[in-house]
Amino acid sequence: MGETAPHPVTGVPSTSPATPGADWPGDPADAHTPVARTPTQVRRLAASATDLGELDARVSVCRACPRLVRWREEVATTGRRAAFADEPYWGRPGPSFGDPDADVLLVGLAPAANGTNRTGRMFTGDSSGDFLYAALHRTGFAALPTSVGAGDGQRLTGLRIVAAVRCAPPANKPTGAERASCAPWLERDLALSAPRLRAVLCLGAIGWDALLAAARSLGWDVPRPKPRFGHAADVVLTTTEGRSVRLVGSYHVSPHNTYTKRLTPQMLDDVLLGLRDA
Ligand code: SF4
Fold first, then answer.
1. In this structure, what CATH number is given to the domain that contains residue 120?
2. Which atom of ligand 1 is nearest to the CA of 110?
3. pLDDT for 146-187, tens place per residue?
4. Strands (E), 3-158
5. Domain count across the chain
6. Is 237 in the pocket of ligand 1 (CB under 6 A)?
């Protein structure tokens, strides 16, 4: 356990990384939440999670990828960015964020070391998140144009954010084995969301591929050949109950894409507004 510092929104003293259930505002886990330490345990604990709250709690304490656990905790303790040196870092996997009754899922790649790994909330605390939440607010999915962290009043309606990989990877590059280890969390998220799901928006090709793999593993009907990722790509998947779910692609909200205007605010707004037509 690291030192204690006041949470930047609530002022509650919190450790870095956050101790499950001890002090971090909005922590979905507690001291009794079972911890996955191997890929086999990830599969077992994901499959047996009975609701999204239980799934989020289990995700948030996962330790199945040694390289990523080391990295996320190193950044949270000795590797904090200077601008955030006085803040506590979440330093754990990112749980989903948003409306538990959402009919739209948004799938990202993985947390950023000084973003979600610091704030504990998906796409929160860096320029990617600033770009995304502004768009979610303009299109009516988010209550506020910014996202800072637990206690800031941000709330999503009709949409929930998940990711292909839940821990911050060095250089933003998870290995194939780490992506495979984390896949059961996404599969279970998809399975628990399926009864009300209308659409899934994937930011980037890795999220797109992860979602297609999750849909296949659940037995959903996925077009063949595999649908190709692209901005505004739009295909229909069919659940085992015969319901149609749209899979929509968008370029990722990474600084590389937004600074170069490969992805503009208007392009993202158009994709988000299009999700309402499903
Ligand atoms: S990346 Fe996923 S499977 Fe690996 S430790 Fe993090 S939450 Fe667990």
1. 3.40.470.10
2. 1
3. 999 988 999 999 999 999 999 999 998 999 999 999 999 999
4. 4-6, 13-15, 97-98, 104-108
5. 1
6. no
